[in-house]
Amino acid sequence: PGENETKVNLEELKTSVLYSGPVDPAEWVGLRKSYPLLVYLRNNLLMLAILAFEVTIYRHQEYYRCRNNLTTPVTKTIFHDITRAHLDDGLVNCVKYFINYFFYKFGLETCFLLSVNVIGQRMDFYAMIHAFWLIAVLYRRRRKAIAEIWPKYCCFLACIITFQYFLCIGIPPAPYYPWRSGNANFNSNIIKWLYFPDFIVRPNPVFLV
Predict the structure, then answer these.
(1) Is the pLDDT of residue 144 over 70?
(2) What is the pLDDT of residues 163-172, one digit of tens each?
(3) What are phi and psi of 194, to 5 degrees?
(4) What single string gives the DSSP state of each residue in 95-157?
(5) Residues 6+ apart with CB under 8 A from 5
(6) 12, 21, 49, 97 - which has most CB atoms within 10 Å?
(7) Phi first, then psi: what are they for 139, rounded to 5°?
(8) Gap between the Cα atoms of 79 and 110, Å rounded
(9) Do the Cβ atoms of 167 and 82 come closer than 8 Å?
């Protein structure tokens, strides 16, 4: 870019996707030459193997129950014979009970802790939105009131993560975004805090995890 086209200094331009080297538009679509191919596909193959393993287990359980005239357990727990009555019946049964029902008993608190962790790790504009939602949910206090707002909170999370995913992808390699023009009063720190798509300070996709 020319001197009047952007306020980006030379050091930042060297790290830009557009100017650090030749740009292959196919990479934006997700196509990249790789050798050996097995290394490139190993994560996809691992996911397929896990899914196949899961389906095999479920089919085997279903076949075993049909062959032996067994009914499907009401609760999909690991230890079917462990109930609340076994909680104080030794340390082993106590551990089994919490393996079965930990998230059922403490799932809400676990979700709150994860939300706080997201806010502390990100410390950006979307962390502030997460904080407002967390305050809105905690303000309800009672479980019944929280249950009423919880579907809206889950819908918000699904939409905001999808939106940020598209921000991480950005537009195909092209001239700078509007916030990188010479008239825009944005610097790299503000763009990073706002989680804007950019070719110099690219959004960190790890934040979505």
Answers:
(1) yes
(2) 999 998 888 8
(3) -80, -10
(4) HHHHHHHHHHHHHHHHHHHHHHHHHHHH-SHHHHHHHHHHHHHHHH-SHHHHHHHHHHHHHHH
(5) 176, 181, 182
(6) 97
(7) -65, -25
(8) 22
(9) no
